[in-house]
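Figure 3 (text version): structure tokens given as input.
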């Protein structure tokens, strides 16, 4: 995994005015936090959902332990209590050595649901998508550039992605005509069909079909299965490109990669 990396989900997005959004707080957020200064603008974190692989990095995120930092966390509302309480199930004894209330930074939590708002030069749309438990996908538009981030998603569950009406496909409105779609592609088509239908994640073939239906220009295969090593990911990316038939660009997300979207 030296090539594609092994950290869990975290994407840093720099907008046209230099302001930043952090999408999810998986273990990848640790290195990102080390690169920040106290004097930087408040940290803005958007969580898609609270599965451990998307919040695990918070305990290792330096700005949370810096009394001069401000961190704003937004994530999905849930029926079983406020976002703060749900995150505190992780950042509390016996799973962690500190409690939420002891974090030195100024931290705020805001629950979001299907909605849209502006942040700096960008418009952010959030919508619930098909996964296990309340999970949001995000669509972020800055000027003429749109990114859709749907890292944990099973739009093919109970659907024929090739033929279903667009309105009936989970997440498709978020991804419409996106310049970059970062989308779940955890399983091979065979693994998915054999043992993972209903697990909340996508077969790579379904990710490509979803991207084609959305009209996205570029697909970043994301949320690689931990059992898939670099060689297999290379092979699967080749198959995904073939399935895309030139309708869009396809790459596998790679840790530390920087994509410029002019
Ligand atoms: Zn998940
Ligand atoms: Zn996940």
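Below: residues designed for each position.
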């Amino acid at each position: 995994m030296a090539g594609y990396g092994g950290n869990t989900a975290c994407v840093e997005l720099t907008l046209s005015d230099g302001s930043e959004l952090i999408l999810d707080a998986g273990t990848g957020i640790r290195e990102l936090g080390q690169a920040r200064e106290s004097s930087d603008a408040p940290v803005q974190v958007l969580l898609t959902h609270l599965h451990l692989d998307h919040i695990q990095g918070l305990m290792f995120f330096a700005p949370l332990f810096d009394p001069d930092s401000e961190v704003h966390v937004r994530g999905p509302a849930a029926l079983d209590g406020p976002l703060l309480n749900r995150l505190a199930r992780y950042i509390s004894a016996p799973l962690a050595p500190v409690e939420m209330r002891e974090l030195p930074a100024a931290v705020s939590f805001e629950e979001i649901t299907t909605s849209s708002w502006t942040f700096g030069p960008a418009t952010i749309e959030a919508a619930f998508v098909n996964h296990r438990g309340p999970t949001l996908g995000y669509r972020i538009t800055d000027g003429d550039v749109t990114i859709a981030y749907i890292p944990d998603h099973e739009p093919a569950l109970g659907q024929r992605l090739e033929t279903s009406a667009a309105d009936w496909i989970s997440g498709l409105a978020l991804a419409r005509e996106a310049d970059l779609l970062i989308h779940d592609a955890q399983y091979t088509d065979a693994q998915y069909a054999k043992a993972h239908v209903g697990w909340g994640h996508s077969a790579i073939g379904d990710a490509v079909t979803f991207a084609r239906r959305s009209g996205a220009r570029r697909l970043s295969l994301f949320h690689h299965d931990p059992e898939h090593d670099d060689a297999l990911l290379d092979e699967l990316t080749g198959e995904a490109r073939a399935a895309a038939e030139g309708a869009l660009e396809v790459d596998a997300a790679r840790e530390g990669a920087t994509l410029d979207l002019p």
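The longest helix spans residues 230-244.
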